[in-house]
Structure formats: C-alpha cells, structure tokens
Amino acid sequence: MGHTRSVGEPATSRVIDCLLDCTKGNALRESEHSGGCLYLVATPIGNLEDISLRALRILKEADLIACEDTRQTLKLLSHFQIRKPLESYHEHNEMTRAPELIVRMEEGARVALVSDAGTPVISDPGHRLVSLCLRHKIPVIPIPGPSAIVAALAACGLPSEEFTFLGFLPARPTERRRRLQKIASEPRSIVLYEAPHRLRATLRDALEILGDRQAVVARELTKIHEEFLRGRIADLMRAFEENEPRGEITLLIGPPEEAAQSASQRPGAQAVSLTDRVAQIVAAQNVDRKSALKQAARELGIARREAYKRLLNEENS
Predict the structure, then answer these.
(1) Which of 132, 118, 6, 11 shows the shortest CA–CA distance to 67?
(2) How far apart are alpha carbons 38 and 126 in whole angstroms?
(3) pTM, to two decimals
(4) What is residue 292's predicted lDDT score, i.e. its pLDDT?
(5) What pLDDT does 42 receive?
(6) Which of 223, 249, 220 is nearest to 236 (CA)?
(7) Higher pLDDT residue, 49 or 26?
C-alpha cells in the first residue's frame, strides 16, 4: 500500500553487512529450505529505517524479487545497495505471472515477493501465488515487518483487543454502502484503508449507516507528515470540509457505544432494552417516540435505521 520515503542518510554496504552478521544463526536454520521457496517480505510503509535485518538478508540472498512496481522496489534496493533481478507481479498480470514463478521455484529458485509498501497479500497482490505454492508443496515463509494496520491501531486510542479489518471499501457508492450495512452491528473496532479522494464520501456513509461513533484518521504513517485526527465521525467530516484529505490513509472506527446496555454489564444490575430506553426518554424529556429513538441510537453509537430494526425485533419477540 502506498510508497516509501527515505529518512536519514543511505546506509552503506559495509554497515549493512556488519549488521547482517548478527542474523547468521537464523540464516543457517532458514538454509534448510534447500529447494525453491517463496518469501513474503514486508517492506517499510514510509520510513526506510523500519526495514528489518532479516528482510534485508532475504532480499540479498533471494534469486529473484517479484514486486508490485519494479520502479518503487528499485528505489528501496538502491538505498540499501542490493542488486537483484526484478520481475513485476501485480493485479493485472498475476494470472500469468504466478504460474511462471511456480515453475522457477520448482526448479529451485528462492523468490522474494514484495509490495510497494507493507506486507504482500494484505490488500496487495499475492494471494494467487501463495495458493499455488501451497498446492505445489512449495514452502511459503513470511518475513514480518511494518504494517499500517498495526501501527494505526496501536496509536489510535480505540479499543484494540479485537478488531475487524475491511481492506479497501468498494469505490462505487452503492457497493460501499452495502458493505457498511453488513457490518453495522459489528461490536469490534473497524480498520480500513481509504483513498484520500474518497474519504469524505466514506465518512458521510459511515455516519449515516454506523452512527456517530468515535473514529480516527491516521495519515502518512511513519512519514514526516504523519498525523492522527481523532473525534467522532461528524467531527472528522467537518475537519475535512476545510482541508482536502491527502496522503496514505487508514481509517479506524470504534465499536458501538452501548450505553443503553451498559447496565447489564454491571454486577447485579438489570439490562435495559431499547424499547424501555425509548420509553424512558419519552417520559423524561416529553418528546415524541421518533425523537426518543434517535437519541437512543446516538447513545448506542448506531444508525437510526439499525435502532429501528432492533426496536421492531424487540416488540415482535
């Protein structure tokens, strides 16, 4: 996902070789893969200093590097003075390129697969190649490293014990809204990638379908202009009305704030149904049922449509 940016002076070959000496013990264990194999090598998502020693060693030792964009990967390799044959592997050629790489690995080649940034396969090309490797009994070895998902989730401040990752939402509005509707009742934090020119529309749809939940826009992670914007979805919409979204964006949306159900989580307390909560608001504030349902939906952090469905289910049960 996205492109990397150099931070600091380029590392010299001598320094890298000294550092890689530290990994020789692990290298001996990995040399047991005497035949062909596929390495899934995670690369920096912005700051080149985030690359691991193991990733550098694998890239130096691989017979071939398959990459999403040869120009982008060449910048990374040049920075670390690594010279290896490159072969393009992207969503437009993987149908034919994957079988070609399988033949190379069956002949004994060690292939390193990289994306432009981050971990291959995760919202990037590679699944077809991994599946073919497994079918042909070719070892697949992950080389973990930088991840926009993990970096954003760790620093966002939203509940992170459990989360749902959606990748990129569909570009078409109807399909995007349909996808959001499917996870409207998802009780965990939601993490997704979004293009800057679609962020406003996605926030607008999320507000209508998911409700005004806590959310975070993580922008340009690990780069010089890294930024976290925190608030409710409506707050973020207002922020981007004034400023055009730019850069690589990870959007995080918190779980529903089940205030109306919080009583059921307290020892010895009795749960309050949505029907009862609506009735309480009507009596306490002297408002109509529609306004009360709208307030209850805000308390739960869900869309009014979802709250209406729950209310009907409770009344018909």
Answers:
(1) 118
(2) 11
(3) 0.73
(4) 85
(5) 97
(6) 249
(7) 49
CATH homologous superfamily for the domain 13-145: Tetrapyrrole methylase, N-terminal domain (3.40.1010.10)
pLDDT-derived band at 279, boundaries 50, 70, 90:
confident
Helix (H) or strand (E) holding 122: none
Cβ neighbour number for residue 239 with a 10 Å cutoff:
14
Q: Which residues pair with 249 in a beta bridge?
A: 194, 219
| Mean pLDDT calculated for residue range 3-20 | 52
Candidates 3.40.50.1450, 3.30.950.10, 3.40.50.10540, 3.30.1330.20; correct CATH number of 149-253? 3.30.950.10
CB-CB contact of 149 with 166 (8 Å): no
User: What confidence tens digit (pLDDT) does each residue in 117-133 have?
Assistant: 999 999 999 999 999 99
CA atoms within 13 A on the CB side of 19: 15
Q: DSSP label at 221?
A: T
Whether pLDDT at 114 is above 70: yes
Handedness of CA 173, 175, 181, 186 (dihedral sign): negative
Residue 68: which of 43, 102, 46 has the closest Cα?
43
- The mean of the pLDDT values for the chain is 86
